[in-house]
Amino acid sequence: MAIHLTPAAADRVRSFLTTRGHGQGLRLGIKKTGCSGWAWVVDYADAVNPEDAVFEAEGVKVFVDPTSLPLIDGTTVDFRKQGLNESFAFHNPQAKGECGCGESFNV
User: Fold this and answer.
1) Cα 77 to Cα 6: distance, rounded to the nearest angstrom
2) CATH number of the domain to which 86 belongs
3) How many CA atoms within 13 Å lie on the side-chain side of 6?
């Protein structure tokens, strides 16, 4: 099992953590919602939960709860900047479909 970050995503997480002044990495998960069934939850990881799976990608630690991991295993997180818009983008090989905005998916 693994979660991957592109160099652009890792740079952005490092930048956020540096500006913030604390945090251990990126917390990635999902919640049941959205127009396609599952929505991404992205946050700072200030503490490690004993049940977290921990991955290191491009020098950044990524923490995933055990409920989310089976549905997002193999996901690559990218960071895209287009004009004034910037956001994380997710490529989940398990997703069967996504909503138009890319914020939710189904498996």
Assistant:
1) 6
2) 2.60.300.12
3) 11
**How far is it, in rounded angstroms, from Cα 102 to Cα 62?**
21
- Predicted local distance difference test score (pLDDT) of residue 11: 96
Query: How many structural domains are present in the chain?
Result: 1
Is the backbone of residue 67 left (phi > 0), alpha (psi -120 to 50) or beta?
A: alpha
- Please state, for a pLDDT cut of 90, what percent of the chain lies above it: 58
CA neighbor of 104 nearest in space, from 33, 52, 5: 33
Q: Residue with structure tokens 């498996």?
A: 107
Q: Using CA atoms, how far apart are residues 104 and 7, in angstroms rounded to an integer?
A: 23
pLDDT value for 39? 84
Four-point Cα dihedral 83, 85, 107, 73, nearest 10:
90
Which residues form the domain of 25? 4-106
Task: Specify the residue for token string 């500006």.
Answer: 19
Amino acid occupying residue 1:
M
Over range 14-39, report the average pLDDT.
87
